[in-house]
Each structure stands twice: as C-alpha cells, then as structure tokens.
Amino acid sequence: MDIKKHALAGLVSGEAAAPASELEALNRFTKTPLTQEQVYLFQVRLCDNQVDRDGECFSHASLEQLAPLFVGKTGIFDHSWSARDQAARIYRTEVCAEPGIVPETGECASFLKGYAYMLRNEENAPLIADIEAGIKKEVSVSCAVARRVCSLCGNDMGSEGTCRHVKGKLYDGKRCAAILQDPTDAFEWSFVAVPAQRNAGVIKAMERRNAAQKGQSEAYWMEQLHQLEKEAEQGRRYLENLREEVLRLALLARDGLEKSTISGIVKKLEENELLQMKAVYEAAAGKRLPLQTQLRYTTEKTSNSGDDGAFRI
After folding, report:
1. Are residue 125 and residue 269 in the same domain, yes or no?
2. Residue 71, SS3?
3. Which residues of 207-245 are buried (b: 16+ CB within 10 A; e: fewer)?
C-alpha cells in the first residue's frame, strides 16, 4: 500500500558554508563535484512514530527501515511526479530520539531526519528565501509499506486483516491507531501546504538556541569549524609530505627493502614514528652520499691556462 505522511521542514542555516563531510556525502549523487558556494543545505523532519491526524503512525522499527530508503530520494512539490518539479535531494538520513515524549503506542518517541541539498541558482532563489523565512516548512513523504497493524490487538488491519477495531475509535479509553509496518520502498518527499503530523517542528530552532546559550553566535561556531577543517587539511598534507620524505631517504640509504615495502610501512606510521625513521635514514644516506660543497678553496697555485676564471665556480 502507498502511504503519504506530512511533517515540517527544519532549516540547517543554509547561509553557512557546508562542512567538508557534508559535501563529500552529497557529491556521491552528483556527476560533477559541487562546492560549498554552489549548494544550499537544509534538514527535513520526514516522519515520526507519533499518531497523526489520519490515526496512523510509523513504528520506530519502520523509521529505521525507511532511513536508508530515503537516501538519494528527490524533493518535489505536492507529490507531482514530474522531472520539472524536482527541487532538492536527500543525501543522508538519521533516526533521532525525542526523550521525554511518549507516543500513544507506548514506544519511545523518535523521528526520521533527512539532510537535503539544492543548487544555489536563480531558479531556486525564491524557494531558498521561502525556506529561510519559514514559509516553506511542511513536507510529506511518499512510500510503500507491507502492513498496517492495530495498536490494540496487534493484528493486521484492512479488508484482509483479522482486526475488528476501527481506526480512531476509543476502546476502554484507548484509541485505536494503525501502525505502518515493514516499509518496502520510498518514492519521494514533497513540499505541501497542510501537515498531518501534529508534533513536527522546526529542527534548527533548538540548535540555534543551544549556540546562544553557549554565549556565541552560530556564525562563530561555524567559523571555528572551518578553521579546524583547514588545520586538519594542513596536518594531512604535512604527514603526506613527511611520508614522502622518509620514503625518499630510505631509497637513498639502500637498506635492502623494496620501495613497495617501505611505502606500505610509512603509510601506517604517525608523526613521531616518521620523524624517528627520518633521522635514521638521513644519517644512513649521509654516510653513503656525503654532501660536497659547490665552491672549493685551495692555497695551491694553479697554472694560468689563459681562460677567464672570473665566472668559474
């Protein structure tokens, strides 16, 4: 059976630069690698395990099964299955817990979060502005599930099921809900006008408050992150150069090891070990190929051959 469920989109501060790890994840879906200047990132709360206005909900296990199914799925408008309406794409997902909230089904509350990207271009500029302004927030997922299970008796619901309860009706003070089980496919997610899930909210709002509580703005922490990424990249280049230098010195020292063997060894070593090897191989290479100065000085007289020695070194 095909299911469409509604939630709210949450912002992930699209104006901030994309971390390198996010770019690496989304570039798995691109033909040409995109840069942080070319993409706009945001998060969407796709669905949760709380009973919605339709009297249905996903189980936590269903959310876990849906998570990989939505990776790579496109974002469109109003479930219009047309290539012209493709606006964004989910490049990774995760299931998040919501401590302190207990759904009607008794499970621990959780929701499926999708990380989406779209191109920064003239065509998408109005949509990006609407997302930033909180106008475009609601989303709906389209997927297929194998079963709808009664929250009261645990039997399958529907014409072929054995459950006799009515979805949405109270029985001894407990409301019957249809639990969506065993997802088989995820088709797409759409921006829509009216959400079905009452408890969906803006994800980024809490993250921004937490940054403010720490006494710094979100821009400050993003700048710190970029600086750490820059320093990490510099560190990687330093280690790579150090490994190449150790390999060069080892080959000069001719200690009997093959180049492939030495290369395999140095790739596994860290800075301290590499520096020790560098010192050992420098000494060995120096004994084998002692350095000679370019200019030599002597007190011995040389015969004048008639050549102009002013430019001789």
Report:
1. no
2. coil
3. beeebeeeeeebeeebeeeeeeeeeeeeeeeebeebbeb
Q: Which of 247, 239, 236 is nearest to 277 (CA)?
A: 247
The whole-angstrom separation of Cα 52 and Cα 198 is 6
Contact indicator for 111, 47 with CB cutoff of 8 Å: yes
Report pLDDT digits (tens) over 101-145. Answer: 888 888 888 999 999 998 999 998 998 888 888 888 888 888 888
Number of domains in the chain: 2
Task: Name residue, tokens 């600086």.
Answer: 227
**Domain assignment of residue 46, given as a range:** 2-215
This prediction has a pTM of: 0.58
Q: Tell me, what amino acid is at 173?
A: G
296 inside domain? no
Query: What span, in angstroms and rounded, lies between the C-alpha atoms of 54 and 168?
Result: 8
Instruction: List, in order, residues 6 or more apart from 264 with CB less than 8 Å away.
Output: none
Residue 62 belongs to some domain of the structure? yes
For every residue of 98-110, DSSP letters joined together read -TT---TT-SPPE
